[in-house]
Amino acid sequence: MRSTEAKSSPVSWTVPIVVAELDEGGQRVAVEASESERAEIARATGLRDLPKLTGTFELMPIGDRVRVTGEVDATVGQSCVVTLERVENAVREPVDLLFVPADQIAVTETYDSDEQTAEDPPEPIENGQIDLAKLAVEFLILGINPYPRKEGAVFERVHTPPAAEDHPFAGLAALKEPGNDGKTPAKPAESLKKRS
Fold first, then answer.
1. What confidence tens digit (pLDDT) does each residue in 81-98 have?
2. What range defines the domain where residue 81 resides?
């Protein structure tokens, strides 16, 4: 299921499609973010850079609803969580959503009776439009690896043993030395001469 956290687009890139103008047999639409739009999206989503962001969508009207299927395809530049070096990853996210008029959202639910699991809730058609750019950014965010790692990079934990004096029982060890427990006599000083 999609996370509700990714449902609001953090950027200004927009490609609105007017639902009333869709062909009855469906319509295929491809979108591609420009260099400046990708730079804005990269800043908003915490990426180092975004060399590519495209989406291909099939919009099929079903009465006053629209089924949107397709794929979001992107190349993202991130920082390796181990070395902090730049890592480039591909993002490919399938899209399959039902859009309905906003006033039907509260009463419309979909349910998969075979799997016995709730499907993603429908998306609202706002002001008679579906924004495919917003959709592309949402699925980009869903597909980003939160812990990118450069190939071969291994996190090695550095273990530094504590100093002997920092040991919690260091004080007890000192008491065990001769002459410190009140019972064991201390060794005579080396400077004392033996009696003749």
1. 999 999 999 999 999 999
2. 4-143
- The model's pLDDT over 27-80, given as tens digits with 9 standing for 90+, comes to 999 999 999 999 999 999 999 999 999 999 999 999 999 999 999 999 999 999
Domain assignment of residue 75, yes or no: yes
Residue 56 belongs to some domain of the structure: yes
Sign of CA dihedral 43, 47, 48, 52: negative
pTM value surpassing 0.85: no
